[in-house]
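ARCHIVE CARD
Drawer: 12
Card no.: 0347
Subject: one protein chain, sequence and derived structure
Cross-reference: see card 0346
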Amino acid sequence: MLPEKLFLASFALWCVLAGSFTMANAATITQRQSDEITFIFIEGALEYGDHEQFVQAALPAKRGVVILSSPGGNLNAGLEIGKAIRLKGFSTYVPGGFSCSSACALAWLGGIKRFADSQSEIGFHAAYTMDGTQAKESGMANALVGAYLNQLGLSEDAITFITAASPDNMQWLKEEQANAIGIPVVMLSANETAIVTGAQTDPLSGQQRLAESEVSDLVESYHDQWSAGGDVNYDYVQNYYAEQVTFYGRPVNLSDIYDEKLKFSKRWPLRDYRIKPSTIDIDCFSDTDCHASYVVEFDARSPARNKSASGLSRGFISLHRFPEGWRITQETSEVIARK
């Protein structure tokens, strides 16, 4: 919601002007309250026991955003912080120009909503133990990482990517790759990054409040029409999507979206996609750019194939207000439960 975005804006400007994120030798964990949102900052290398300090900061919070800048450190601390983040339903954010790798990146994965931008660095490698001065990959440590990633509901492709690099290498996560392997990330555009790093620190304007309301109505309408069943038509796609869209990390055009949607609608002609009450979360940087996340209860059926699929998914879309109205510019999702 807005307080979250306004705080991120002031935080980013603070980083730029004051250099608040310097690479400390050990992690510092601080917090700041903004209305009902608790913002927890983790900076520097994680050490064993840092998770206990984090839990103490997180426990009283009803809503939270965890902002990370760390080269990693103690594996147990990273995993336990990530578990606490997921348990509390917090979001995570790596600001542009900062790095979060190794154990830090594992903690970042715990976010219900994961924020980054084109200048964020988020890196992974296999877990290891030290044999003297030599880092040696550890089967036991990687088993712990695998169990944690399974708890988060990540795909096999995601788990393979996260643990593939040797201890002395790093796999840096890119937007298209993230979505392709099942790690949904809400990416900030260049324009939005400029807003976050300096300009948008005033209270929400009336136009932005209107934008949140309009986007909420669009999300509901989008899923209601998708649930009508049958073959999707081009008008549906044109009414909801921009000419150019980042679709699950891939840059595509409107015709590509139509082909994807038509193929899916033919495969699953009977569809019921209902947004669960109180799960829509809308963040507007301005009156023309918004992000929405929500949980959908879905039921898709194909009588001809005698097949069905049902469960819960978490959707993420970014929208821009064009002269013709709001249109989706970025879309991704993850299945969080199957029935």
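Annotation on reverse: The CA atoms of residues 6 and 201 lie 5 Å apart. The chain has a mean pLDDT of 83.
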